[in-house]
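[recover] target loaded
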């Protein structure tokens, strides 16, 4: 149970993002809604994913220096305020957002980009 509001955890955050991505891709099949032809959209998407990989591995590096749990459901043992954690409270969530946005830009799919609001809201308001 979540201690903040006693709501049970329904799904891990990555599944909310996966559901929004699949929904956006299906909506695009049914009613195409894409970016105007942009020459560098695949490059921009790939660049976002490179940043994602850097964030992902920097989180593991920080976790080795200071033994903090990688899973958000476990109690925090140490407050890490250096490295990537100096800029964001949870780099893993930021990495998920960058992955999702990178895929949306690479696919040129506006449905997927618009639907990023759904998993962001789920993670924020369900206190996952």
């Amino acid at each position: 149970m979540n201690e903040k509001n006693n709501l049970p955890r329904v799904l891990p955050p990555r599944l909310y993002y996966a559901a929004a991505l699949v929904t956006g891709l299906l909506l695009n099949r049914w009613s195409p809604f894409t970016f105007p032809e942009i020459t560098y959209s695949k490059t921009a998407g790939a660049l976002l994913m490179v940043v994602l990989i850097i964030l992902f591995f920097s989180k593991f590096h920080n976790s080795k220096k200071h033994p903090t749990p990688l899973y958000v459901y476990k109690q925090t043992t140490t407050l890490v305020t250096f490295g990537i954690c100096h800029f964001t409270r949870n780099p893993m969530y930021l990495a998920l957002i960058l992955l999702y946005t990178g895929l949306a830009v690479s696919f040129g799919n506006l449905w997927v980009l618009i639907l990023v609001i759904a998993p962001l809201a789920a993670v924020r308001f369900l206190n996952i």
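[recover] notes: Helices lie at 13-30, 41-65, 91-107, 110-114, 117-125.
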